[in-house]
Amino acid sequence: MANRSSTSPEITPSRSRCIVEHDTEKLSFELINYMQLKGMEVGKFVSSPVCRVGGYEWEIRFYPDGLNKEYTGNTSCFLCYLGKDQDVRAKFSLSMQETKGLQAQVASFGTLDYAFTTGLNEFGYPQFVTTSKLKSLARFGDGCFTIRCVLSVSKESPPLELHDDLERMLEEGLGADVTFGVGGREFDAHRYIMAARSPVFRAQFFGPMAEKDMRHVEVIDVEPTIFEMMLRYIYNDKLPSCNNEGGGYNAAI
């Protein structure tokens, strides 16, 4: 004969989470002979080849004569997001060094964190390096410079569909190893899942005073319909719609 026991359930709320991952790449954009780029006019830019990072397309934009007249005397440099349909958050840093010779560092900036949108798709430094500094370096070198960008794109993974899988097990009765008797009705369930969500069942199934191989539990002071909703909440972490019956369910929890 199967072991029997009686109890009144208590449920521990579950937790769900999203996992945020990052895809990081190093981009390089070589400027061949800066002196030939100088004089393109304010607001004109040259761009790097398009690079795909984190599932999105990006390019570096360099303005040899500055972004606009406000930044006359400076070059400007921006990271540009080329996506059309989705906003994306990224962290990136920009730097410049001489391409040949001593490969001296020309400029280096800290990491920026920015939420790119289709309307605000460029972010960076309108005062990147002064034109006088680059002309001076070009005069004593070959005038070639490399812009480097370390780009890290955030990718949010969707929550795991664990609750859907657990609810399917409940509905199909797959692997059920305990039966709950409630007001003349019986409900098949899984001891480990019930124990994980309820300290009462945890103690009853696996505590020091637990009966070995308990297969049947009589639940007292709970209506069958309320217990059925409570059982589904244990498996799928979803409350029923707010009505009289649902209100009684919430109170029972």
Automatic annotation (TrEMBL):
PROSITE patterns: BTB, MATH. GO terms for biological process: protein ubiquitination. Pfam families: BTB, MATH_2. It comes from the Eukaryota. Signal peptide: none annotated. Pathway: Protein modification; protein ubiquitination. InterPro entries: BPM1-6, BTB/POZ_dom, MATH/TRAF_dom, SKP1/BTB/POZ_sf, TRAF-like. This is TD and POZ domain-containing protein 4.
